[in-house]
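Researcher: Sequence recovery benchmark, item below. Answer with residues only.
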């Protein structure tokens, strides 16, 4: 008999590099109906040293990546242990951790999330479920996005579920299948330019709003090959580094204009990506705080009802859903949908590490 209640910590580090998200969650399931409560949540920011390492790790040698993986696993274990101690969390069923994506090249049959080494379980003295992407890539999938099954199980009342983080992605039902894909970079690019102004990010999009949209640049961005591809499709930082930033940098315009133009590009791509321009659009992720971006999305989707949830769900939805993926793995149930990733079949992905 399966349990009806699971006490879990979900752990997520996104491409926007704002830190490690941790959420202490109780899931209940009865007659296949799932419910959840986020009891505690926290984002632990990276030190400047770690921030710099993670920003350039995409170019590391194999040996340097192995060392980084070891070091990051130790860092993650310390962060999780501190979280457990701080909130006096007891009787956990598991810690379900995504790790941090360094390389994502599904076209080459490869994806790397650091922090998923076996020693993480004994380091925190807990069962750990992690490394959710590798198996999907081995089955011919994109290894992403993985959140849509959580959208289907936990947020089925909305037509569209969208996350605006380092990248934007969306999921929705179409012909009784869950469809999902990455849309475009978001904060990976916006934060890059905010950093050049000495800021961590463009608060509420207030700087972007002062810029002028460069029509030629927005046209070139919208014409990039990735946007012409059909789903399933996913993005990694390589696309930003090798394609998007060089294109933006080829224009000698002020940073404010670059921010404004890229915000417009994000909004255009979101409007193009949604097959039906009406209904409810449930938005989570740090981009939901960008008022200017929200304005531009609403402008391009005037008949769409945009819903932004409570702060806990907005900021910790990915940690919540990776916690759910871990529970599904513990139950031996499907947690990755082939309709989303393009893998050969639906499957139960992830690795379970014992603390002993």
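Model:
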């Amino acid at each position: 008999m399966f349990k009806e209640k699971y006490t879990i910590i979900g752990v997520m580090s996104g491409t926007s590099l704002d830190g490690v998200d941790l959420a202490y969650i109780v899931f209940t399931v009865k007659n296949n109906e799932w419910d959840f409560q986020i009891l505690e949540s926290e984002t632990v920011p990276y030190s400047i040293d770690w921030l710099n390492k993670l920003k350039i790790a995409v170019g590391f040698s194999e040996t340097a990546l192995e060392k980084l993986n070891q070091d990051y696993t130790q860092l993650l274990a310390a962060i999780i242990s501190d979280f457990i101690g701080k909130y006096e969390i007891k009787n956990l069923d598991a810690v379900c951790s995504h790790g941090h994506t360094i390389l994502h090249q599904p076209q080459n049959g490869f994806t790397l999330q650091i922090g998923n080494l076996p020693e993480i379980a004994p380091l925190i003295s807990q069962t750990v479920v992690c490394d959710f992407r590798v198996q999907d890539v081995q089955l011919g999938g994109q290894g992403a996005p993985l959140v849509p099954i959580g959208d289907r199980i936990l947020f089925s009342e909305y037509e569209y579920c969208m996350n605006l983080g380092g990248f934007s992605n969306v999921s929705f039902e179409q012909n009784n299948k869950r469809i999902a894909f990455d849309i475009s970079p978001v904060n990976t690019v916006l934060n890059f330019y905010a950093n050049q102004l000495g800021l961590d990010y463009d608060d509420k999009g207030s700087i972007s709003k002062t810029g002028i949209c460069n029509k030629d640049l927005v046209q070139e961005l919208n014409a990039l090959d990735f946007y012409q591809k059909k789903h399933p499709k996913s993005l990694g930082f390589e696309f930003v580094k090798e394609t998007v930033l060089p294109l933006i940098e080829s224009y000698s315009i002020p940073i404010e204009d670059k921010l404004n133009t890229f915000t417009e590009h994000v909004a255009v791509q979101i409007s193009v990506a949604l097959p039906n321009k009406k209904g409810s659009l449930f938005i989570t992720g740090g981009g939901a705080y960008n008022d200017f971006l929200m304005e531009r999305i609403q402008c391009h989707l005037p008949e769409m009802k945009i819903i932004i949830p409570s702060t806990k769900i907005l900021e910790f939805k990915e940690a919540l859903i990776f916690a759910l993926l871990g529970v599904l793995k513990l139950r031996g149930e499907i947690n990755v949908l082939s309709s989303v990733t393009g893998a050969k079949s639906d499957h139960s992905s992830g690795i379970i590490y014992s603390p002993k």
